[in-house]
Amino acid sequence: MIKIEKITKKYGKLMVLEEANLEIIESQSLAIIGPSGCGKSTLLRLILKLENLTSGKIIVENNDISLLGEEELISFRKKIGMVFQYSALFDSMSVFENVAFALREHTQLTEREIQQIVNKKLDMVGLLDKGNIMPAELSGGMQKRVGIARALAFDPKIILYDEPTTGLDPITSTHIENLINDLAKKLKVTSIIVTHQLSTIFRTSDRIAMLHNGKFIEAGTVSEAKNSKNIIIKEFINAGIEKT
Description:
Layout: E1 2-11, E2 14-24, E3 29-33, H1 40-47, E4 55-60, E5 63-64, H2 70-78, E6 80-83, H3 95-106, H4 111-124, H5 140-151, E7 158-162, H6 170-187, E8 190-194, H7 198-204, E9 207-212, E10 215-221, H8 222-226, H9 231-243
Parallel strand pairs: 3-8, 3-9, 6-7, 7-8
Antiparallel strand pairs: 1-2, 1-4, 4-5, 9-10
């Protein structure tokens, strides 16, 4: 379980998160929704400790991540896979090299062991035959799959998805949503999905949490969100339905 306890994040005088609280249930998929700029992606970076909290605690597997030392932090990050909004692949490296990069940097594995792991992860996302291709030669959907394969490299218990279907056409979005679902069920990972796409929310998530003005104003099942009496959630969902 991940516990977010009264976390605040400020950039100078700009308050992004203010004493926000949330519990994320192990092995479930949670969609974090809210207006643009409300701190959704910031929260993912805070969970991964790519940024520091202004105040509050994030507890992952009973560990306060703010107390982790340098070596502990490296081990901690291996338990969490991150899929970035724009894939964030190294343009100068092949698909295989992108997935292998962190394994080479942070393990003592042999090249043969790395090759086995990378091929396994590429196979899981349907790209086993694309290892020698450069990212620029891939479609947006395929680049996203490479990003997911890279996130799986260390067999994480938690996967963070930052806008996984933004910029993709509806058919490709559906394929990525199905992949997220399949991986969650097969690997029994905890998935945290930041998105504003209703199709992604409804297809991939067990629960939804609404972030507004720096706080989580409601969290519950997808069904509860659809039937919520909270005017902000109703407006968000209705606006998304009107666009589809």
